[in-house]
Specification:
single chain; 10 helices; about 280 residues; two-stranded antiparallel sheet; 11 strands
Length: about 280
């Protein structure tokens, strides 16, 4: 358990603690650290001399939920990440983020360029953004989503098999790939099974930055960066030329698979991450 100011973050750890190079893995929305278990396995088998740690974001997996009056604002994830990075005290830090994790990692790398040696974004390229004209509608939608949640009872599950079937339907992936996430992401209270993530995660954001703000952040990222896209992943990421130009040192590549391409192609993902490490080691 990694302690931060307000809550404990659960983590999967492997390799050599205290190593010069630390790989920090950040999962996506409503996933958990087990999203990276197969990538971690491949990487630590290839090179056990590094330290590998995958956290559960607050409100996800085995990590604590935030207080009942505290929602999950995007910028608070950046604060959570900073507390983890400070505690790691890494000499060379490589951050690997998937989806939400990629969005957070890109913003953190912009705000603290001295702390990040390399950045890997899987199915994400910089923070989410939208037209400033949508500000009032987003605020209204977000507030109403919170009100609906207050009136809603937590969803119960018959068992973990039902949870697995729901994830398979949502992600269009086989059970062998999704089972580690489901196993870590469900809990039993003695009578019923529940998703272990905080229901407040499903509330809509109250605010999203404009594209100009996102571009400004991405221009501040100093480290070598890699964007890994699934060939059948999120469609809006395919047209990445405008954002890619904001980065000082970015490689964009694609691998077979969808939005969870790192689950489908763990070996290829591990090889791409190690190739980026070799790149920064050569330039040291």
């Amino acid at each position: 358990m990694i302690e931060t100011e307000h809550h404990g973050l659960a983590a999967l750890e492997a390799g050599k603690k205290g190593a010069k190079t630390v790989f920090l893995f950040l999962h996506g929305w409503q996933d958990n650290a087990a999203s990276f278990s197969s990538v971690l396995s491949d990487m630590v088998t290839s090179d056990p001399e590094h330290y590998y740690v995958a956290i559960d974001w607050p409100g996800h997996g085995l990590s604590s939920h935030k207080a009942s009056d505290n929602y999950y604002h995007f910028f608070d994830y950046i604060d959570d990440l900073h507390q983890v990075v400070v505690n790691l005290s890494a000499n060379r830090l490589v951050i690997v983020g998937h989806s939400l994790g990629a969005l957070v990692a890109s913003c953190y790398s912009a705000a603290f360029p001295d702390k990040v040696s390399a950045l890997v974004m899987i199915e994400g390229l910089g923070p989410l953004a939208e037209s400033e004209r949508n500000a009032a509608n987003r605020l209204r939608t977000g507030m109403l989503s919170r009100q609906r949640l207050r009136k809603k009872s937590p969803r119960t599950l018959r068992d973990q098999k039902e949870a697995l079937k729901l994830r398979m339907a949502a992600n269009q992936l086989p059970e062998t790939l999704l089972w580690p996430i489901v196993e870590r992401g469900t809990r039993f209270d003695g009578q019923h099974w529940y998703w272990s993530h905080d229901p407040k995660l499903k509330c809509d954001s109250l605010y999203r930055m404009a594209e100009e703000h996102a571009h400004s952040l991405m221009r501040e990222i100093q480290c070598p960066s890699l964007c890994i896209l699934g060939q059948q992943g999120f469609h809006h990421l395919k047209d990445h030329s405008q954002r890619a130009m904001c980065f000082k040192n970015l490689q964009v590549t694609s691998i077979p698979g969808g939005h969870h391409c790192h689950l489908e192609q763990p070996k290829s993902t591990a090889e791409l991450i190690f190739a980026l490490l070799n790149k920064i080691q050569t330039s040291d």
